[in-house]
Automatic annotation (TrEMBL):
Residues 45-224 form the 3-deoxy-D-manno-octulosonic-acid transferase N-terminal domain. One of its GO terms (biological process) is lipid A biosynthetic process. The active site is at residue 73. GO terms for cellular component: plasma membrane. It comes from the Eukaryota. The record marks 143, 223 as: Transition state stabilizer. GO terms for molecular function: transferase activity. This is 3-deoxy-D-manno-octulosonic-acid transferase N-terminal domain-containing protein. Keywords: Transferase.
């Protein structure tokens, strides 16, 4: 049966997208090399991002693929992964993320039998190679990783798709609602057998983008059940809270390289009215922490690094979190 209306237009948009991602593949490969040089890709396993596996697929049995973009989404997937592993021990589980920071944390928190790989970029060659090698029976995507080559490729292979903790920011919703991209969403969302949105507002967003109503099921925010599966050492946090209890504090979280200069400028202004203020800086990429600390020290700041468990001695003005942590709301 031929497609008509928005879905037919969506097929045309998808063909254009596939052609563009095919043509841009060499540039995307160079971009991965550049990211590797900057420490944003794994120095050895970065080729997994091109769909080249570093581990063997189990020779027999079904495989369930969980995909999350980064640490927060990956942590939210862990309770589901553990439940699936206990409920169906005969099913092999593959987990992918795109960031090194997620890899460093999740590899020690996932069950031992879970296979971990870096996610392929959404080019035809990388995604087709990945799906062809791993041959997943089901794919669970976390939050909003709506990549066309992944979704259409999986659908053509008869792979069932689910979207958990599904959400679209107001900006993303406006983006996908544009006349050019709306038909593409009309093509992609019906490929999902299950969409579990974070809220009724999110459910409405997905329905407005033509997700079938029967596929939408509420499950709540999975990030709220992560604590049940995590054993946290709170001693360091409690000690830090005690040290900061009598001080003015402000935090700059998830900053990119270079933004420390702006933070330092704000800090210097605040010191004029709050001489004992302590600025907490949390880099988006913790591996840049030492470099940022050196830059701040050149500016005359007394910096304490979390990785070195330094105390906030008198005169310490900046506390730099150069280890992986979850920042609470």
């Amino acid at each position: 049966m031929a497609m008509t209306g928005p879905m037919a237009k969506g097929e045309i948009v998808y063909r254009i997208y596939r052609a563009l991602t095919y043509g841009l593949s060499p540039l995307l490969h160079l971009h991965l090399h550049w990211r590797k040089l900057r420490g944003l890709e794994h120095p050895i396993r970065w080729r997994e991002r091109l769909g080249r596996p570093s581990l063997r697929r189990p020779s027999s049995g079904p495989l369930l693929w969980f995909h999350a973009v980064s640490l927060g989404e990956g942590m939210a997937a862990i309770p589901v992964i553990k439940f699936c592993s206990q409920w169906r021990p005969d099913v092999h589980i593959l987990m992918t993320t795109t960031t090194v920071s997620a890899f460093e944390v999740l590899k020690d928190r996932l069950p031992a039998n879970v296979i971990y790989q870096f996610a392929p970029i959404d080019t035809p060659a990388a995604m087709d190679a990945f799906l062809g090698y791993w041959k997943p029976n089901w794919i669970v995507i976390m939050e909003s990783e709506l990549w066309p080559n992944l979704i259409i490729g999986a659908s053509k292979c008869g792979i069932s798709l689910a979207l958990l903790n599904a959400r679209l920011s107001a900006k993303s919703f406006r983006h996908w609602s544009r006349p050019v991209l709306f038909p593409l969403m009309c093509l992609l969302l019906p490929k999902f057998s299950l969409i579990a949105p974070l809220s009724s507002v999110q459910a409405i967003h997905f329905q407005l983008l033509q997700a079938p109503p029967f596929s939408i099921k509420f499950s709540g925010d999975l990030k709220y059940v992560v604590d049940e599966y995590e054993q946290k050492d709170t001693r360091h946090i409690e000690y830090l809270q005690k040290q900061l209890s009598q001080k003015q504090v402000w935090m700059a979280a998830s900053i990119h390289r270079g933004e420390e200069e702006i933070i330092l400028g704000v800090h210097n202004v605040l010191v004029q009215t709050h001489p004992d203020i302590v600025t907490i800086i949390v880099p988006r990429h913790p591996q840049h922490g030492q470099e940022i600390a050196e830059e701040l020290q050149k500016g005359g700041q007394n910096v304490a690094l979390r990785s070195q468990h330094k105390e906030l001695i008198p005169g310490t003005s900046i506390y730099l979190v150069d280890t992986l942590v979850q920042v609470g709301k």
